[in-house]
Amino acid sequence: LRKLHLVDTFLVFIIPYMMVPFYILLFRSYFQDHVHSLREAAIMDGATEFGTFLRIVLPISVPVIAVVALYVAVAHWNNYYNALVYTTDSSLHPLQLYLRQLLLVTMGTDSVDDPDALKEIQDMILTIRYAVIVISTLPIMCLYPFLQKYFVQGVMIGSLKG
Q1: Cα-flanking dihedrals φ and ψ of residue 104, to 5°?
Q2: What residues contact residue 89 under an 8 Å CB cut-off, 6+ apart?
Q3: Which residues 6+ apart lie within 8 Å of 132 measured at CB?
Q4: How many whole angstroms separate alpha carbon 36 and alpha carbon 33?
Q5: In 3D, which of 133, 63, 82 has the Cα closest to residue 103?
Q6: What's residue 36's pLDDT?
Q7: pLDDT tops 80 at residue 102
Q8: Which residue has the higher pLDDT, 105 or 155?
């Protein structure tokens, strides 16, 4: 990636997710099942390729687009590994990398001699860790209800039909 000048750039978070085979298969199976006959009918009625895409294909593709958007959002939100490997600039580090660092930190409790104070400090550290975990999951939890109505329909793409 150094030869491509992608180290310490924001593109290192985008480019690996541009061509995910699973998402391509989801779109392909959805379009094979739903779009072909409608597209042919629109072309026979005189619609252009771009007009067919805007007026027919895109509106009926909302479920699969919503599912892939949710999958991509969750994958990006939970991914800290790319930032850990490909970035050294802390301004590019995502929240999950900071969360990982927080969960690995012991905050120098070795210097505390009093067992009661040590227990209190460890409890405080655990409370902070749990609070950060809950706060970091809130955006995805807030996004899911808006996409949930499309989720079941979109996930069933390619399944057996009875």
Answers
A1: -90, -15
A2: 8
A3: 99, 102
A4: 7
A5: 133
A6: 75
A7: no
A8: 105
The whole-chain average pLDDT of the chain stands at: 79
Say which residue the tokens 């009625």 belong to.
45
Calculate what percentage of the chain has a pLDDT beyond 70.
85
Three-class SS state of 122: helix
HEC sequence for 40-82? HHHHHCCCCHHHHHHHHHHHHCHHHHHHHHHHHHHHHHHCCHH
CB neighbour class for 87 (10 Å; exposed up to 12, middle 13-18, buried from 19): buried
Instruction: Give yes or no for a contact between 87 and 7, defined as CB atoms under 8 angstroms apart.
Output: yes
Per-residue model confidence (pLDDT) at position 108: 58
Place of tokens 């939100």: 77
- CB-based contacts of 8, cutoff 8 Å, min separation 6: 86, 87, 88, 89, 92
Rounded CA separation 83/96 (Å): 9
Confidence band of 162 (pLDDT split at 50, 70, 90): very low
